[in-house]
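Q: I have two molecules that I believe assemble together. Could you output C-alpha cells for the complex as a whole instead of separate predictions?
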Amino acid sequence: MPNFKLDDREIPFEPGETIIRAAQKAGIDIPHYCWHAGLSVAANCRMCLVEIMPPPGRPAMLLDVLSWDTEKQEYIPQKKPKLVPSCQQAAADGMVVKSQTSEHVDTARSAVQELLLLNHPVDCPICDQAGECRLQDYWLEHQGTKKRMRDEPIHKPKAVVFGPTIVYDAERCIVCTRCVRVSEELAKDPVLSVRERGNLNEIVVAPGRQLDHAYTLMTEYVCPVGALTSIDFRFKARVWFLRSARTVCTGCATGCNSFTDFDPRNQHAYRYRPRENLAVNKFWMCDDGMLDHRRIHEGRVLTARVRGEASTIPAALEKAVEVLSKATADSTAVVLSAEHSNEDNFALLLLAKALGFSAVYQSGRPAGPGDDILRHPDKNPNTTGIASLAKASGLKTFAEFVEAIRAGKASTVLALGSATPTGGGAAALSDVKNLVAFSTHEGPFAERARVLFPASSWAEADGTFVNAKGMSQESEKAITPQGDSKPAYRLIAELAAALGKPLGWKKLAELRALMAPPAERSAASESASLGAE
Amino acid sequence: MEPLDQELDEAELEMPTEPMLLNVGPAHPAMHGTVRCVMELSGEIIEHVDVQVGYLHRGFEKMCERGTWTQVFPYVDRCNYVSPMLNNVGFALACEKMLGITVPERCQWYRMILGELARMSDHLTCDGAMAMELGAFTPFLWMIKAREMIWDLMEEETGARLTHSFGRVGGMASPPTEHLKENARAVVAHILSVVEECEKLLLGNRIFLDRLEGVGIISQEDAVSLGWTGPCLRATGIPYDVRKAHPYLRYDEVEFDVPVGSASDCFDRFMVRLAEIRQSARIIEQSIQRLADSGPVNVDDPRIILPPKEEVYNTIEGTIQHFKIVMEGIKIPAGEVYSYTEGGNGELGFYLVSDGSGTPYRVRIRPPCFLITAGLERVITGQMMADVVPSFGSLNMIGGECDR
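A: Yes, here they are, computed for all two components at once.
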C-alpha cells in the first residue's frame, strides 16, 4: 500500500483516497466542517487546509501576501506557501504533508475559525449543539483569541421551520452545505439550496416545498454547528449529561447501527444517532428510525396483568402456571416475535420444548413503506433471526396462527411480542381462551392476554438481532428496565422455574452459549451427517 | 465499641494491680478533632497507647475524581481548615506544574502574602489552644482575636472567612484589593504585639513551663523515620523547610530564617511556632514591597483562565471559552506529578495523575498531620496521662487534613 507522511507519521492510503480520509482511517482527525466521509467534497469551509511540501528539487509554490506588523503599525510584504484543502487533495505516494507542524496552517485555521465566528450569535446557553459543537471545539484547539470586530454582527432569520422535523437558525449557520448535500445525495431530493453570497448567505428550502423527505434528520445530524436542530430533540436535554449505548435500531429489518443517547440520572432515552457501519447503514439512519426512540417510553406495558387487572409478577407467574399446567400440546400454540431479540425468542423456544408444545408461529409489526436507501418494508428487526432459530421446529406464519385459532387448535397460547401483522389477527386473538403474553407495548396481545408479563424493550436489555441481510448484530443495554418490566428471557426463565422445568441457564452468557451462532450449529450438524455417511 | 488491641480476660481486669484500659475519644475535649486513643495505664503512666484516626474521613480524594480540576479547590479548603489558603495555593501549584506554566510575578507575591497570613493563623490557633488547654485562657482569647483579624482580611480579599476557594489553576480568583497592603501591615503589626504580650504572660509562668519542658520528647531519628515535617520536625533541630530546601513561588528572593529547637519537647514546638510567626511577618513585609500595584494576576491562556463576564455575555468567543472551561474543565496533559509546599504543619504534597481529560484521574494528598499523628504513640508512651494534653496539642493534628 502506498504511503504519505503526515507531520511525523506515515499514513497508508488506497489510490485515489483523499488526505483527510486516509488520515481519518489512521485515527488522525484533521479539523474540518464541510467534509463528510459519506458526502461529496465541497471544500468550502477551508478548515482542513494543510501544507504540502514541494517534491525534492522543486521550488515551493509561494504567494505574495501583505501581513500586518503590529510593531510598525503597517502592512509588510511577505511570502507564504499555498495551502491546499486536504479533503479535496488526493494523497500521492511519498507526499510530505504538514498539518499540526506548520505555522502557516496554524495561522490559516485560526483565521478561518475567527471568520466563522465573526457574525455568530451568543447562543451557546440556549443552543442544543453546545457540548458537541465544532465551533466550540475548534475555537479552543485552533483559535483561542478574543473578538476583534467591534461592529454589530449581521442578523439573519432565526427559528425558521424547514419542515415537520427541522428548525433552522441562519445566524448560527456556517453554510458548509452538508445539509444540502445530504438531501441531494442521500435522500435524492434536492430540496435545500444556498441563497445570497458572503455575509448574507443562508440555506433555504425550495419554494413551495418543505424539508419533508424520509431522511430529514440526517441534515441535522451532519450539521457541524447548531444551525439545524431537530424539533424532536430541541430543548429536551443537554448533551453533556447524556451517555451513549451502542445499539441497533429496531425500527425495521435493515438493522442500522445506532447510539442510544440517554440520561443516566432519570434513565430516559432522548435520541438515536447513527453509528458508522459501512456494511449496513454506512453513516446514516432514516427519520422513522431516528424517531423510533420514542417507543422506548411511549405505550409501554409496565406492570403484570391478570385478566386485564394490574397485578404483580409473582401473582402473574402463579396464574400462568395454573393456565399452562392444564394445557395440552395439541391445543396449544407458541408465538415467537420478530420484534424481540434472539435471546428472548430462544428462551421461549426452550420453554416450549420443555413443555412439549410443538406448534410454533410468528408475529410482528405490520409491513410499511420501504425504499432502496435504508428503509426496509419489513418493520421488524429480527424476522431472519427467528426464522433460523425455529427452523427445526418449522416456523409457521401468522396467517396459519389465525387459522389454527379458528380451527380450535390454539385455545392456549404462549406468546412473545406486542403487535400483530394484520388487523384481522388482532380480532382472532379474542377467540383464544388462555393467552399468556410477554409484551413490551400495549397492543392486541396486551389487551387480550389472560396473563400478561411486562417485558423490557430493546433499550433496556442486551440482545442480538439478525437483519434482512442475515447479519447478526448485538445491541447494548442503555437504560435500566422501566416499571416492573424485566427482559423477556428472564421472565420466561422465571416462568419455567415456576413450572418446575428450569431451562438450564442462569446468566445471559450461558443462554448465548446454548444459542450459539446458527451458522456454526448448522455447519456442525452438516459435518456430523456427512460423517455418518 | 470496637475490640481493643489488648486481649485481657475479664478476671484479669478486675485485679487492681493490672493496667487499666482507658478509652479517650473520638469525641473528647482533650482530643483535637475526632481521634480516639486507647490507653493502657499503670497508675497515671501511659504504658501503651493505640491511636486510631479516620473518624473524619470524607472520601475527599475520591470526590475529586468526579468534577473538574477547578472544582477540587473547595475540597482542599477543607483539608487543613485553619490555613486553607496554603492548601489552595499548593494544589494550584501542582496543577500548574503539570501544565508547565508559571503564574505572573504579581500573583506569586500575592499568593505568598495570603499564604503567610494563613500560616500565622495556623500557628496562632495551635499555640493559643495549647495554652488554653493548660489553663491559660487569656492568651487563647488574644491569639484568636488576632486570628480573627487575619480572617477579616481574608474576607476582604476573597469574600470568605474560612473556606476561601480562592486559588485557581493559573492564578487567583480575583486580583488583590486596593487596600491589601495597608490592611496586611496593620494586621501583622497587631499580631506581632499579641505574640509579644502572650510571651510575656506565658514564658515567665512556672506552671506553663513545667508542663511543657521535657514533655513529649521525640528523637531526631524517630521524627525523620516517621516522615515528620514542619514545626514538629524543626523542633527536633532539623532545619528542613520546603520554602528553603526547595523554594517555590518567590521564597528564594526573600530573607527569612528557619527557627529550630533543640530539646524536641512540647516547649520547643510551641516556641518554633511563635518564632515562625515572626518569620512570616518578615516574608509578608518583603512581599508587600515587591507586590506591584497593577499588572496581570492570571496567566494569559484562554484554555486555562475564565474570560471576564462582560466578554462571556457579549461575544461568542468569550461564551465558548467560558463554556469549555466550565463544562469540560481545564485539560491538563496526561501524566503524573508530585508537587509539595510548606503547609501549616509541614510538607503538604499533592500527587496528581491526569489522563488528559478535564477531570482528575487521581488526587492523592500527603497531609503532614497524618505522619505526625502516626508519631503520637511514640511521643506519649511513658508519659503521664495529663501530659497527653500538651503533647497532642503541640503536634497540631487537624482532623480534616489527617483523615481527608
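A: One point stands out. Residues 518-532 of chain A form the longest helix (15 residues).
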